[in-house]
Amino acid sequence: MVNLAGAWKNLFFTFPKPSLPNHGVLASSSFCTLAAKRVGTHSGTFHCDEALACFMLRLTQHFSNAHIIRTRNPNVLETLDAVVDVGGVYDPKRHRYDHHQRGFDEVLGHGFATKLSSAGLVYKHYGLEIIAKVLQLDEGHSHVNQLYKAVYRNFVEAVDAVDNGVNQYDMEEPPKYVINTSLSSRIKRLNLDWMDSDQSPERENEAFHRAMSLAGDEFLDVSDTSSEELELLCKIMVTSTVNRYGVSCS
User: Fold this and answer.
1) In angstroms, rounded to a whole number, what is the distance separating the alpha carbons of residues 237 and 213?
2) What is the pLDDT of residues 46-63, one digit of tens each?
3) Following CA atoms 141, 13, 224, 92 in sequence, which dihedral angle do they give, to the nearest 10 degrees?
4) Which is nearest to 222 in space by CA: 183, 178, 169?
């Protein structure tokens, strides 16, 4: 079993000091080459969904080691290889993954009904590829599909729901207490405080990459844990039924 939480942290959590090009664009890179793709998201206050979306895209083969460009300039966004959480367009053929436009109601499917955020959109299109790496299996393997749904249920769906303002319960009364320790809350607190003396774009970009690291760390941990549980379940099934049904985990 591959331990992605250990194997990928060193590769994807190292970010050099970002540079600031023209047009108010916040750009940064990790192990970049001239051929590296460019993934865009909005500048300013960030949330968990775009931090996780950017992290997941950089785990894929197509966007491996991509530059992260943070801007709201539509002319700049149009030139990028992928755009998440900004731009008002959902078009997977052009790698556009925004969910704020009127009429957007995309869900993951597979029985899930929660409206997707940018994180869910990226997971919908690239989750199988990422999970296949966790299990070291082909994307079409049944175990990959099982873990794909489990990771969404146990992690990504909550990010989608929080970002879209979906309550966990149907309530007419206000909650008796507030939870401020969720992943979304912790990432929100990484935004620059209005009292911080340094409000520079460089500092903002550094904070966003800390958010990417936090979201990505937990995503990989959940993926690893879920894959280990799936492997254990399969072993239990084999032990109890192999003689009768010929079950195999291969």
Assistant:
1) 36
2) 999 999 999 999 999 999
3) -30
4) 183
Q: Strands across the sheet with 90-91, in order?
A: 26-28, 67-70, 38-41, 82-84, 96-97, 90-91
Backbone angles phi, psi at 155, to 5 degrees: -145, -65
| Closest among 244, 222, 35 to 130, alpha carbons compared | 222
Q: Can you tell me the distance from the alpha carbon of 156 to that of 229, in angstroms, rounded to the nearest whole number?
A: 18
Q: Which tokens go with 199?
A: 């409000």
Q: What would the two tokens of residue 2 be?
A: 């591959």
Question: Torsion-angle region of residue 42: left (phi > 0), alpha (psi -120 to 50) or beta?
Answer: beta
Q: How confident is the model at residue 14 (pLDDT cuts 50, 70, 90)?
A: very low
Listed residue (89, 97, 88) closest to 127, CA to CA: 97
| Residue 59: both structure tokens together | 């785990």
Locus of tokens 């966990």:
168
Question: What does the alpha-carbon distance between residue 3 and residue 207 come to, in Å, rounded to a whole number?
Answer: 26
Four-residue CA torsion sign, 217, 221, 227, 230? negative
Q: How many residues does the chain have?
A: 250
228: CB partners within 8 A, 6+ apart = 1
- Pull the structure tokens for residue 228: 């280990």
Q: Name the DSSP letter for residue 38.
A: E
pTM of the model: 0.79
Give the dihedral sign, CA 161/170/100/208.
Answer: negative
Compute the Cα dihedral for 114, 119, 121, 124 and give only its sign. Answer: negative
